[in-house]
Specification:
Length: about 170
């Protein structure tokens, strides 16, 4: 009997990555107790980790996903593609889908962080004097960011109903 745990065989890692199962790769990584679990969460697998945490009611993993988003909140904006959790609409949808109603500390902190990021991305509209050239330029800039996101074919399924902007 081994005195120390060894990681799963390379075939497991290959299965998890080639089968498009980034969440499964995260779970396999969690088996190595010598590594910080946050080291296994990335922008690429965040969706999968939260789906697994929700499906199997794993609150610790859900909280790790929230912590990852909180620690990387400076990367959230309307600029990334809609499929990326770095996109504010996608991030807000993840909060609504996986954290609303649970009232955990991490979930409440995450909701506040994403809400603040959304407010700050739209704050320029409120600051600009009404009917000034600046306000029109600012509004046009935000519309130019939102329009392609709203017109994206996956908008209705990626962005939760509570977050969606009317078409």
């Amino acid at each position: 009997m081994r005195s120390r745990w060894s990681p799963p065989p390379r075939a497991c890692w290959t299965w998890a990555t080639t089968a498009g199962r980034p969440g499964a790769l995260y779970v396999l990584g969690m088996l190595d107790l010598s590594v910080n679990p946050l080291d296994f969460i990335s922008w690429d697998n965040l969706d999968g980790v939260l789906q697994l945490a929700d499906k199997y009611d794993m609150q610790a993993e859900r909280d790790l996903g929230a912590t990852f988003l909180i620690l990387n909140a400076q990367s959230l904006s309307l600029d990334p593609p809609l499929s990326s959790p770095k996109n504010l609409l996608k991030a807000a949808s993840l909060v609504e889908r996986y954290f609303v109603g649970l009232f955990t500390d991490a979930g409440c902190q995450l909701a506040a962080v994403v809400d603040k990021a959304l407010e700050s991305s739209l704050e320029e509209i409120e600051v600009a004097p009404y009917y000034s050239k600046d306000s029109r330029r600012i509004v046009r800039g935000i519309i130019c960011k939102l329009k392609p996101l709203i017109e994206d074919a996956s908008y209705a399924t990626t962005v939760s109903g509570a977050v969606q902007v009317g078409r």
